[in-house]
Amino acid sequence: MTRLFAERSGAGIEREHLVYCAGAAGVVVHGVDHLASDPEWGFWFTAAVVLSVLTAAIALIYPWLAPAWREAAGIPLGLMWAGVAFVHHVVGLLVAGPGPTDYTGIAAAVGGGLIVVAGVQADRARRASAGLAAPKR
After folding, report:
1. 45-52: which pairs have CB atoms within 8 A and are 24 or more residues apart?
2. Which residues of 12-43 are buried (b: 16+ CB within 10 A; e: fewer)?
3. pLDDT in tens, 31-63
């Protein structure tokens, strides 16, 4: 099992961290919009708030996480944000017209995609540190 925290990584982590932070910013903006415009407290809304806080917290400690943990956090979390925001906001915007939080929902969907990209970059960093270079094409 890998360690949760590692020494702050040098090469490449800055871009990966920036991509994750850009994605997290889209998610957090959408979460704040939901809180400000139409908070309907229920199980799913509470779960979304908790996951928004988790996404932002990971952005703060991201450079110190080991690559395997960055990958394990980024890919599923990003897929969840991209998928849920796309279905609930982007498709809703196209089908039923704009709702109160649909425009920031687009930011959350794009943010989720960016978080996935950061997770894939972390996977590449993990493989490179383990000596498993990607095959050249």
Report:
1. 48/84, 51/77, 51/80, 51/81, 52/27, 52/28
2. ebeebbebbbbbbbbbbebbebbeeeeeeeee
3. 999 889 877 888 988 888 899 999 999 999 999
- Could you tell me which residue, 58 or 136, shows the higher pLDDT? 58
Give the torsion through C-alpha atoms of 48, 34, 92, 116, to 10 deg. Answer: -50
Q: Which two tokens stand for residue 19?
A: 């991509």
DSSP H helices, the chain, are 13-37, 43-61, 67-85, 91-96, 102-129
Structure-token pair, residue 24? 């997290």
Q: Which residue has the tokens 């199980």?
A: 43
Structure-block tokens of residue 27: 């998610």
Residue 126 has pLDDT above 90, yes or no: no
pTM (two decimals): 0.85
Q: CA-to-CA distance for 137 and 129, rounded, in angstroms?
A: 20
5: helix, coil or strand?
strand
